[in-house]
Give the backbone structure.
Amino acid sequence: MFRRELWPGYSTYTIWQTLLGTTRKLGRDHAVLAELYSTQMSNRLTELVDDVQRIYKKVLSFFLLLSAVVC
């Protein structure tokens, strides 16, 4: 058929190599994003949930205090 050392001369080989390189790069990029989302984003979201719960408790206690004063 075709000898392997002649493959780089064919456009299909070049296209395949480009596709393979692009796929590898996307795989590495996705791995980096997965690492970011699994650690940094989840930690930040946990902090935000804690902040929202703390604010909610303060607002609720203020509302209860205010309603007790008004009534």
